[in-house]
Amino acid sequence: MQKPKKTVLAVGDIHAPVDHPKYLKFCKDLYDEYDCNEVVLIGDVVDWHAISFHTKHPECPGPRDEYLLAKKRIRKWHTAFPKAKVCIGNHDARPMRLAEPQGIPEEFLKDYNTLWGTPGWEWDYEFIIDGVYYFHGTARGGVHPAYNAMKDMLMSVVMGHVHTAAGIKWLANPQQRTFGMDVGCGIDIEAFQFAYGKHMRKRPILAAGIVKKGIPYHEIMPMSLGERYHK
User: Fold this and answer.
1) Is 104 left (phi over 0), alpha (psi -120 to 50) or beta?
2) Cα–Cα distance between 113 and 225 in angstroms, integer?
3) Phi and psi for 43 in degrees, rounded to 5?
4) What pLDDT score does 4 carry?
């Protein structure tokens, strides 16, 4: 007997503590609407702006303050989704990336569940659920990042990382069909941490994805003035 397929909610990059204040509510509503039974946070759960490799914005908090603010936000996500799979993103991995050049081994650092107080969350770089490959998408880019990753992986792909990419693109041959879904993100674009994108023509797309019995659905967050999730 074939095992029933999952209904997966794929949450975009949230970059706590600067996730959009209504994005969690949006994701909880989608979880209920689609009757989901699995949650995947696609990565960059935390921003770690204070320990960025790039120029820091002078208005942003330092490392300890950012950590405390992010942990407070993550607590809300953990309360909403106490069981979840979490794809480790390039921002999540910043402490380790900074430690490695100094010769500090991974064992000297706290694991993700201890660091963020998230028992019940499974942190890893990739997951395969019902034949669909979920990963953050570190180092991926281009016009259709997930579609390109799908062609490389030879299987359906769900990914985040590229905030301006969102949607589903299909590929089919005589024997199978596969899809690449760019989830989008859940960031607060007005936060100082994202000031670098102020003058970019392409803006982040706030959205989330669902894969229900192997079929992908992509949902844009209605967040404009007068819409349900406006700040």
Assistant:
1) beta
2) 37
3) 120, 170
4) 75
Let me know if residue 196 belongs to a domain: yes
Residues 6+ apart with CB under 8 A from 204: 163, 164, 184, 185, 187, 189, 194, 197
Query: Does residue 178 form part of some domain?
Result: no
Residue 191 near residue 172 (C-beta atoms within 8 A): no
Distances from the Cα of 78 to the Cα of 73, 119, 122, 178, angstroms: 9, 9, 12, 31
Per-residue three-class SS string for 85-116: EEECCCCCCHHHHHHHHHCCCHHHCCCHHHHH
Show the domain range for 74.
7-142+185-220
Residue 112 amino acid letter? Y
Element (H, E) at 80: helix 63-80
Q: What torsion do the CA atoms of 91, 92, 98, 99 make, to the nearest 10 degrees?
A: -170
Q: How many CB atoms lie within 10 A of CB 128?
A: 12
Q: How confident is the model at residue 2 (pLDDT cuts 50, 70, 90)?
A: low
Judge whether 13 lies within some domain.
Answer: yes
The single residue listed with the structure tokens 């009757």 is: 35
Number of domains in the chain: 1
Residue range 3-13: mean pLDDT, rounded: 92
pTM of the model: 0.94
Assigned token pair, 179: 């899809």
pLDDT-based confidence at 3, cuts 50/70/90? confident
Residue 170 and residue 177 in contact, taking contact as beta carbons nearer than 8 Å: yes
What's the CA gap between 71 and 17, in Å, rounded?
Answer: 8
